[in-house]
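hey so u asked for the seq, here:
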Amino acid sequence: MKFIFLALSAIMMAVSVSGQSKYIEQVTQHAESYEAEVIEIRRVFHQYPELSNREYETAQRIADIMKKMGMKVETGVAKTGVIAVLDSGKPGPTIGLRADIDGLPVTERTPVPFASKEKTEYLGQEVGVMHACGHDTHIAMLIGAAKVLSKMKSQLKGKVVFIFQPAEEGAPPGEEGGAELMVKEGLMEKYGIDVVFGQHISSTTEVGKINYRVGGIMAASNRFTIKVKGAQTHGSRPWAGIDPVTVSAQIILGLQTIVSRQMELTKNAAVITIGKINAGTRNNSYTRGGRDDRHNKDFGQRYAERYTRENTQNSDQYCRGVRRGRGGDHRERIPSYIQ
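ran it, structure tokens below
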């Protein structure tokens, strides 16, 4: 019954401390009555995931469910997002409750009857699609909170805006999407939202408990691509060319020392992950080029831009050093706002 916390977030903003205990009891009772239904809803969304900016059926299912609760629903927000509003008809704050809705290009291998069998094309390759990050649960949690709050509408003040955000995992190359596009389109101003609550599940957190901290708790991320250029030759004559695979391996290992030896981790956490590397077409010859996709994560808006800039500068320097040592070349593509 993780959706209890979302429902309570909306209620507690509008009532005094002395009156909160009776609402906690009511929310708990309603949550228990909806638990089986919310579990079933989650399994349906889990079985039919969709990738970022392609959540068409997901959005339609969400909209249909919210409309049946009598809410005003807006679709097509930031391409495939859904907004639903519960209006108490009484003055009070406008509370936003948010969940993300997109899946990942991952093939599911879990032995459950509601496992995803979906396949699609991603970056030119056929891939499986899975809710591997828990967004199916987030959708169900927000719907569960909506059901509880709808049941208690007469006791509420103000409005509750249910935000189903698409493309949390990142819009496809060349597209906009996600929370940034929602804000850019004027979501906060249009609905007069005073504060937004959201939560993320974790398999390491016991059901019924929440983790929180002051400041950032979930990492912001930026994607980087490094292209390494070598000189083609046969694998039996490595001295006649430049092996971009070996150069890439050196870069991958060396990038890890940026965080461990150059970042001031007492002020902010950071991590660099190489999630993908492509090179070559045959096993007995060197390719001319290799490509690393790098994922940089850090915490906190205050430090994010500075840390991203420092990580980029440090990695660029390291790549140049390896390039000079091995005779290769590299190109690094970084977000325009930190160049």
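The two ends are 45 Å apart (CA to CA). Residues 20-47 form the longest helix (28 residues).
lmk if thats what u needed
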